Amino acid sequence: MRPHTTTLAKERIGMGADDKLEGKADELKGKVKQGVGDATDDPQLETEGKVDETKGDLKQAAEKVKDAFKN
């Protein structure tokens, strides 16, 4: 049996919000790693932080593009 259309729409909206939060979490995690790497003079940790932050930024940008096409 197929779920009602409004249920599907709600699922899509909820997943988008989760993806946005995940992107923001990656961005923040990256900033923390960069700060810790800088404080401990660990260039590898700083680099990991930059990668995480970029990953989070890209996820958020992708969600913005998805949102633009939904409207």
From TrEMBL:
<feature type="compositionally biased region" description="Basic and acidic residues">
    <location>
        <begin position="47"/>
        <end position="58"/>
    </location>
</feature>
<comment type="similarity">
    <text>Belongs to the UPF0337 (CsbD) family.</text>
</comment>
<dbReference type="InterPro" id="IPR036629">
    <property type="entry name" value="YjbJ_sf"/>
</dbReference>
<dbReference type="InterPro" id="IPR008462">
    <property type="entry name" value="CsbD"/>
</dbReference>
<feature type="compositionally biased region" description="Basic and acidic residues">
    <location>
        <begin position="9"/>
        <end position="30"/>
    </location>
</feature>
<protein>
    <recommendedName>
        <fullName>CsbD-like domain-containing protein</fullName>
    </recommendedName>
</protein>
<dbReference type="Pfam" id="PF05532">
    <property type="entry name" value="CsbD"/>
</dbReference>
<feature type="domain" description="CsbD-like">
    <location>
        <begin position="19"/>
        <end position="70"/>
    </location>
</feature>
<feature type="region of interest" description="Disordered">
    <location>
        <begin position="1"/>
        <end position="58"/>
    </location>
</feature>
